[in-house]
Structures are given as structure tokens and as C-alpha cells.
Amino acid sequence: MPIVARPALAWLLLCFASAAQAQERIVPIEQEPGHVLKFQNQHVRFFDVQLQPGYLALWHTHLHDGVFVNIEPSPTSAQDLGGDTRIRPPRMIGETYFINYTREPKSHRVGNVGDTPYRVIDTEILRGCGGFVPVQDAPAQTLIVENERVRVTRLMLAPGEQADLHAPCGMLVGVSAGELAFDSGGPEERMSMTPAGFKWREASTPVRVRNSGTEVFHGVDILVK
């Protein structure tokens, strides 16, 4: 498990004190029932967040930087610890953003106030992979976010189209379903990707992905620097 830095530890202690005063219980993100941990290694933790209509999440704390990819939209309520509740309109399917929780940890709770499920993917960044160098994207790739921790691109692959998933490591997230073929220098690997599906990679050279299906594939690739 990753070591909690002193600023984050101080934040946790402050949150616990505030929660005690408010008679509310704050849990780590992995103990919030709607935040399901699907994958973890030394570099990332991958959460599939699903909130059914009417569900109000427990108070929980974010300590690590995260890349969020929206899969199913719904209006939500959001309340930071000590703050007022605000209503957020639905985000677009595939909307992707980075939040620097390492610098500014946050305890909050979110509720689904709509009539349809709310689903978002949270890829927490725990440790860098090292060795990243500037790269050239394929026409099917669009840069969304780049900072000192991640480089995030959107993939829109037509049937038969291919692109390189850059080294050294990263997480490919499916926004739509699709049939994919991966070439990393050995036998080709095939995979049926689902919305909110994912594939982790660690490779010294790019991994080539090809849309082997009959429909456009929409994905988000999170390269960890």
C-alpha cells in the first residue's frame, strides 16, 4: 500500500476531527460502496464508480491525483466537507479531466439526483513509471490533458484503424464497446472492450492497438509519466 505523505496525513486528521464535530463518518475511498476498486498495482488504482438513482455516497476522502472519465451521465449533488450542497448538471459521455488531489486532498460526498445511473471511472495515480519522452500521436488520437504526472489522449478508431499506445505504462479505458487487437511485438492479443472496461500496459516500446470490429471505438488512454 502507498505511504501517506505528511500533508495528506494532516489533511486526514483534520477531516476526521471535522467529521467528529459533525457526527459524520468519513471512509477511505475504497470503503465507499459505490466506488469499486477493480485494479491496483504500484502505479495506479482503478475505481469504477456507479451511483444508482437516489444513491447518496458516504463521506469519503481523495488523497491521490486522479484522471476521471465519464461513462454514464446523470445530474448529481456534490458537497465538500464543511460546505453547502450544489447540484451539477450531467457531464458528457467521455468527458475527461484531471484533479490534483495530492496537492489539495478533499473529503466530500456525491449523490445521484437523476433518473438514470451515474458512472465515472477514476484512475488514481500512485507512482510514476519513468522514461517518458515526447511522442507523435496518430490521427485518431487527440490530446486532452498533459502535465507532470500524466498524458491523456482520446482515441476514436474507425474499423481497421490503428494507433500506438505510448510507453512506458498506461491505462486504456473504454468509453464505448469495441473489438480491439494489440500488438506488442509478440503474438497479437484480442480483447472485447466494454464501456468502463480497461487494459493496463507496461512496455519499453509502444503497444499498437487496432480496431478489429465493425464500429467506431471510443477510448481514453492515460499514460503515466
Describe the structure.
The protein is mainly β. It has one helix and 19 strands. The strands form four sheets. A five-stranded mixed beta sheet has the order 1-4-9-6-7, covered by helices on one side. Strands 2-3-10-5-8 form a five-stranded antiparallel beta sheet, with no helix packed on it. The N terminus is likely disordered.
Element layout with pairings:
Layout: H1 6-21, E1 26-28, E2 35-40, E3 44-51, E4 59-62, E5 66-72, E6 76-80, E7 85-88, E8 96-99, E9 106-112, E10 118-125, E11 141-146, E12 150-157, E13 162-165, E14 169-174, E15 178-183, E16 189-193, E17 198-202, E18 207-211, E19 217-224
Parallel strand pairs: 1-4
Antiparallel strand pairs: 2-3, 3-10, 4-9, 5-8, 5-10, 6-7, 6-9, 11-12, 12-19, 13-18, 14-17, 14-19, 15-16, 15-18
Gist of the model:
It contains 1 helix and 19 strands.
Residue-averaged pLDDT: 91
H-E string: HEEEEEEEEEEEEEEEEEEE
Structural class: mainly beta
Shape: globular
Spatial arrangement of strands, main beta sheet: 1-4-9-6-7
What's the β-strand tally?
19
Task: Please count the helical segments.
Answer: 1
Low-confidence stretches: 1-23
Helicity range: under 10%
